[in-house]
Write a structure and sequence with these properties.
It is built from four helices and two strands. With 91 residues, it is mainly alpha-helical.
Length: 91
């Protein structure tokens, strides 16, 4: 998806269309159990949290805030990026 995001950003820049991706960490949503192989237990959550430097799962609000920023005029020079909204997990 990152390669596709960059390719589309290049293709669509002439039309003043920006293309970006949002890369979230595991989120506190109903899909978390599926992500954890059906084992949404306190122990499994604890294992995931040890891999996230900020020490918490993402929320839908975290992802929405990133999307709102990328759609705003404040991000008017941002295109072709994959924004990691992951609490530092990919560092």
């Amino acid at each position: 998806m990152i390669t596709a995001t960059r390719a589309m950003a290049i293709e669509l820049a002439r039309s003043k269309i920006r293309v970006n991706a949002i890369n979230p960490v595991a989120g506190d949503t109903p899909l978390l159990a599926t992500f954890m192989g059906g084992q949404d237990t306190p122990e499994a959550r604890s294992r995931i949290l040890t891999t996230i430097p900020l020490g918490r799962l993402s929320t839908p609000t975290d992802i929405a805030a990133a999307a709102a920023f990328l759609c705003s005029d404040d991000a008017s020079m941002i295109t072709g990026v994959a924004l990691e909204v992951d609490g530092g997990r990919c560092l």
